[in-house]
Amino acid sequence: MLRVSNLCKSYGPVKAVDNVCFELEKGKILAIIGPSGGGKSTVLRLLNGLETPDSGSIYFINSQGYIENGTFGLVFQEYNLFPQYTVLGNLTLAPKLLKKNYSQAIEILEKVGLTDKKNNYPSQLSGGQKQRTAIARALMLKPDILCFDEPTSALDPKLTEEIVNIINQLKGEQTIIIVTHDMDVMRGTADITAIMDNGKLRLDI
Amino acid sequence: MSSNTTLWDVTLNLLDGFKLNAVIFFVTLTISLPLGMIVTFGLTSKIYPVKWLCKFLVWIIRGTPLLLQLYIVFYIPGMLFGMPMRNRMLATLIAFVINYSMYFAEIYRGALENIPKGQFEAGKVLGLSKTQIFFHVILFQVIKRITAPIGNEVITLVKDTSLARVIAVQEILMVAGRYIGYALIWPLFYTGVFFLSATAVVTFVFGRLERGLNHATGE
Asked: What is the domain partition of chain A in residue ranges?
């Protein structure tokens, strides 16, 4: 289980994340919804170590109640694929450099429906295919929590449905946090919904 | 020289001079391309005195003519320190290497700063170290971005090598200029063929390089 306590982050006088607390059980999907500039993406950046919190804590608790190590993965809003690597290269780069297993790459590509694109470069992919590659890349390192930053904001309704289907496929086996400003997208997918505005997070709406 | 004014003889003489242009060209490129990278690390350093020193050097070198820098490197050691620069070629190479390093450093810096922040962040989120991110994610993208501007600078370098004549390095224009004393002006114009041939080779090489880099990203 992930436990986030009293998380705070300010940029000058602006409190981007103001005393955010929540818990997320293994296998559940949390959707954080709210307007742009409300602090949603900052929470994801804090969880993934891209920003340092001013105060607060982020930790994992096992079934016996002890603190344990945990990892995060992030699917960026802009995908941030590496242009000089193929789809398969994007998936295997980090595991290879970190000397971890990467034999699951083909299986993960099958899961996101990209097997036939494995030798294509990001410049040869559509927006939806880039998004699926970014999801596959994040899954390669088997993160305890997979985070999505506005996963459907740049996609048309058909591609949005594709991405939601992939997230639904992962449901139950992968703990997920999704940040979006589009409440309709996550209706029926998220187990827990929260609203974030002015840096404050409100659960159970 | 007066009796050697056939096209063939002039060509051979000019070719002799052009060898010096080629030496200036290749030595400058070989040293200033990596040296420029070191200056870039200084320009982007978080140690502010280092950053300001590098910025100041770039400003001085880019803000003054290469011609003036050649004079300074050749004459100043003798005037100020009593150690006259006896090797004209060495003075030329020092001035060229310093000058081109600063231009290359600015090109590298511009390319590095234009790499989307998301590329660094994606590497970090995947657990890569800063060194791994630089060598396996960023470097290729920097090389792709600098190829065209570096190509421009290299073409300029081909032509700039002729400036060495101001401190009496016997490069091609200096050799051609001697024919004027024998009432022959055409060898001077003929030197254009040598420069055009060299820039054609550089243009071809950089064109191939750009196509290769585009091909490597599926474009």
From this structure: 1-71+143-205, 82-142
pLDDT, tens only, A106-145: 999 999 999 999 999 999 998 889 999 999 999 998 999 9
| Residue whose C-alpha is closest to residue A34's, from A191, A189, A188, A186 | A186
A149 CA: distance to closest CA in chain B (Å)? 13
State how beta strands A175-180 and A29-33 pair: parallel
Answer yes or no: are the C-beta atoms of A27 and A2 closer than 8 Å. Answer: no
Q: Are A151 and A163 in contact (CB under 8 A)?
A: yes
Q: Do B218 and A120 touch (CB under 8 A)?
A: yes
Q: What is the pTM of this model?
A: 0.84
pLDDT (tens digit per residue) in A33-49: 988 888 999 999 999 99
**What are chain B's domains?**
19-168 (1.10.3720.10)
Tokens 């501007």, residue located: B149
- Which of A80, A84, A97 lies at the smallest CB-CB distance from B128? A97
DSSP state of A6: E
The CATH number of A1-71+143-205 is 3.40.50.300
What torsion do the CA atoms of B185, B191, B193, B199 make, to the nearest 10 degrees?
-150
- The conformational region for residue B82 under phi > 0 = left, psi -120 to 50 = alpha, else beta, is left
- Show residues of chain B in contact with A120, CB under 8 Å: 218
Amino acid sitting at position A83:
P
3-state DSSP call for residue A29?
strand
Do the strands A175-180 and A55-61 form a parallel or antiparallel pair, or are they unpaired? unpaired
**Contact between residue B17 and residue B171 where contact means Cβ atoms under 8 Å apart:** yes
Q: How many Å apart are CA A132 and CA A41, to the nearest integer?
A: 20
Show residues of chain B in contact with A83, CB under 8 Å: 141, 217
**HSE, side-chain direction, 13 A CA sphere, residue B54:** 24
**Residue A24 CA: distances (Å) to CA of A116, A135, A149, B159, B174:** 35, 20, 17, 66, 78
Residues 6+ apart with CB under 8 A from B174: B17, B164, B165, B168
Give contacts of B145 with chain A, Cβ < 8 Å: none
Say yes or no for a CB contact (<8 Å) between B218 and A122. yes
Residue of chain A nearest B119, judged by CA positions: A80
Can you tell me the distance from the alpha carbon of A30 to that of A33, in angstroms, rounded to the nearest whole number?
A: 10
Q: What is the ipTM of this complex?
A: 0.91
